[in-house]
């Protein structure tokens, strides 16, 4: 079993626990923004896509990488954008007295 | 700078990004700090992408820059959709995320072959299968939510057998590839079979189960990214994927609990088919209906009102009229709260964002358990476009298909008012005894128009 696999497994398990503890505490009020934010974070696969597209090892890999860059970057941009839009809508308070 | 020093700098950028990811989710726990969470995520993403662009392995930027621009051009409009369209946007973004994870895995395979190790092949195989099935599954879910595809479950005899056979075929192909990773003929077949399985997985699932399905696809998309991190030995992907995957998983568990159903039941149960016979057997019963004037009179005389919104409110786009009603009643000194069932709508938290969009303060949006304890002291429960989540049969009728599902106890309020188009049973086809209670008034009509009429009556009847 490669050593990399084991160290990745450590990281995966620890991150999974951290995620579990943090996400449990997110109010149900914010479950929709939670999903769009984690989606935007997940779009970090764009970094792998950039490397595949930019290394230009084979034409096939370059094309696949390029499509992956577009797909994941659209998630990143759109995900942060819509999460912030939603969160701006959540206002506390004092209903206004007309 | 030496290549080693550059590499170390890149690694530090990724570590910083990882820390910011965790902070982003931590800050999302409360509406007060949540926007800092988005900022943290944005900085993390900018750091990671910026560092990657400096990677000395990159030889050409033409494709990267072009596709980054295309991605932004697609992403920004998708970030600007209406709150009612958020479920389908979310499903689409799961599809994009899974697509890119799958494509990167596929590219890794073809670049590496014939030097792919067996262990590496196992990782790539699993990653590509999960990514591919999540891609097509999420596209089907998005199609259903956008109503390009029918929302009802599409079922046929032997469905589960066919679906499971297709999944087994994909896994067997992956095993064959692990035995001989250089077999480039099997690889595309495995991808195709996984893509087909994604379609088969989601087609039989009905619209009302979408909150669970979206959460589950969320989880798959996350885990495929984490697996990609294993394939590429990238810790930042492992962490981001693990966070996204566990988030989706927790949400699916919450959704399943809120429907008193198991994963297997949601995935293979094809809800909405079984009850057809039971609904037909119900004898004619009388209901009481009321006009907007009468409804306005009762609401104005109440001191506490709980509004229960459901998917019907989203469909009718009634949330802004509901806000006007909230304002009118609050002005008269009526205490108005909103009772939110976890599975109301088409994705977790759907009702909250719709009502927040309509400027209703979030402290007024109350979770099910909390609002249920207030229900017996509530003068009026006003149900707008919700059905099964208010059905008292879930508490009392052991033969009901939704028996055991936690519901909002609206039947305990002093008066119940239900805005509904007609008496036709809801999505799941289950009759709701709530409608036949003496204390219940049915308000027949379109949610948006009816709430609008009530608001006009409260304002003094001048239209």
Defining key terms:
heterodimer, A: mainly alpha, 4 helices, flat, B: 463 residues, alpha/beta, 6-stranded parallel beta sheet, 18 helices
Question: What is the structure about, briefly put?
Answer:
By secondary structure, chain A is mostly helical. Chain A is built from 4 helices and no strands.
The gyration radius over C-alpha positions of chain A equals 19 Å
> Number of helical runs of chain B?
18
Largest sheet of chain B: 6 strands, parallel
Shape field of chain A: flat
Query: What oligomeric assembly is this protein in?
Result: heterodimer
Taking pLDDT < 50 over at least 5 consecutive residues as the criterion, the unreliable ranges of chain B are 271-281
Largest sheet data of chain A: none
End-to-end C-alpha gap of chain A: 69 Å
How many individual helices of chain A? 4
* Dominant shape of chain B: globular
Class computed from helices, strands and strand pairing of chain A: mainly alpha
Q: From N to C, what is the helix and strand string of chain B?
A: HHHHHHHHHHHHEHHEHEHEHEEH
Using only C-alpha atoms, the radius of gyration of chain B works out to 25 Å
Structural commentary:
The complex is a heterodimer of chains A (98) and B (463). Chain A has 98 residues and is an all-alpha fold. Helix content of chain A is 77%, strand content 0%. Chain A contains 4 helices and no strands. The radius of gyration of chain A is 19 Å and the shape is flat. Chain B has 463 residues and is an alpha/beta fold. Chain B has helices at residues 3-27, 34-53, 62-79, 86-112, 118-145, 159-179, 186-202, 210-232, 235-258, 263-268, 276-280, 292-301, 311-315, 319-331, 350-357, 368-374, 393-396, 447-458, and strands at residues 304-309, 335-340, 365-367, 380-384, 415-420, 440-444. Chain B has a 6-stranded parallel sheet with strand order 3-2-1-4-5-6. The longest helix of chain B is centred in the N-terminal third of the chain and has 28 residues, at 118-145. The model of chain B is unreliable at 271-281 (pLDDT under 50).
């Amino acid at each position: 079993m490669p050593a990399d696999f084991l160290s990745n497994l450590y990281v995966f398990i620890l991150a999974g626990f951290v995620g579990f503890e943090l996400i449990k505490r997110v109010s149900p009020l914010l479950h929709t923004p939670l999903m769009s934010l984690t989606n935007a974070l997940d779009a970090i696969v764009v970094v792998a896509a950039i490397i595949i597209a930019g290394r230009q090892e084979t034409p096939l890999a370059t094309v696949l990488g390029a499509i992956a860059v577009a797909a994941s970057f659209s998630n990143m941009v759109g995900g942060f954008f819509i999460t912030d839009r939603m969160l701006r809508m959540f206002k506390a308070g004092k209903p206004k007295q007309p | 700078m030496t290549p080693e020093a550059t590499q170390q700098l890149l690694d530090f950028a990724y570590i910083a990004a990882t820390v910011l990811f965790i902070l982003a989710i931590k800050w999302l726990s409360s509406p007060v700090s949540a926007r800092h969470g988005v900022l943290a995520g944005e900085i993390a993403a900018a750091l990671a992408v910026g560092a990657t662009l400096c990677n000395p392995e990159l030889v050409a930027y033409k494709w990267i820059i072009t596709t980054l621009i295309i991605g932004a051009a697609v992403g920004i409009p998708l970030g600007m959709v209406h709150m009612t369209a958020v479920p389908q946007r979310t499903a689409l973004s799961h599809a994009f995320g899974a697509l890119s994870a799958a494509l990167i895995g596929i590219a890794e395979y073809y670049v590496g072959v014939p030097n792919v190790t067996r262990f590496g092949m196992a990782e790539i195989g699993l990653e590509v299968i999960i990514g591919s099935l999540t891609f097509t599954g999420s596209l089907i879910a998005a199609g259903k939510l956008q109503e390009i595809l029918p929302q009802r479950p599409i079922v046929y005899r032997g469905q589960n057998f066919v679906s499971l056979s297709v999944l087994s075929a994909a896994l067997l192909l992956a095993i064959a590839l692990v035995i001989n990773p250089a077999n480039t003929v099997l690889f595309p077949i495995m991808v195709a079979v996984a893509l087909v399985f994604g379609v088969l997985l989601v087609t039989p699932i009905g619209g009302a189960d979408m909150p669970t399905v979206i959460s589950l696809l969320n989880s798959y998309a996350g885990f495929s990214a984490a697996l990609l991190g294993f394939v590429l030995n990238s810790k930042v992907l492992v962490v981001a994927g693990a966070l996204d995957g566990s988030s989706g998983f927790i949400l699916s568990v919450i959704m399943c609990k809120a429907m008193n159903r198991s994963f297997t039941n949601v995935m293979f149960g094809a809800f909405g088919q079984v009850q057809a016979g039971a609904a037909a057997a119900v004898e004619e019963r009388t209901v009481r209906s009321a006009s907007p004037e009468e409804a306005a009179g009762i609401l104005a005389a109440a001191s506490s009102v709980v509004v229960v919104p459901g998917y019907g409110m989203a469909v009718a786009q009634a949330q802004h009229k509901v806000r006007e009603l909230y304002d009118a009643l609050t002005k008269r000194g009526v205490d108005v709260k909103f009772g939110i069932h976890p599975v109301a709508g088409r994705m977790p938290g759907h009702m909250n964002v719709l009502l927040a969009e309509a400027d209703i303060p979030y402290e007024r949006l109350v979770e099910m358990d909390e609002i249920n304890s207030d229900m017996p002291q509530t003068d009026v429960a006003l149900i707008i476009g919700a059905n099964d989540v208010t059905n008292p049969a879930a508490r009392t009728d052991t033969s009901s298909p939704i028996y055991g599902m936690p519901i909002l106890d609206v039947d305990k309020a002093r008066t119940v008012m239900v805005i509904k188009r007609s008496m036709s049973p809801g999505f799941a086809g289950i009759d709701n005894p709530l409608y036949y209670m003496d204390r219940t008034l049915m308000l027949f009509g379109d949610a948006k128009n009816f709430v609008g009429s009530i608001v006009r009556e409260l304002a003094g009847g001048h239209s």
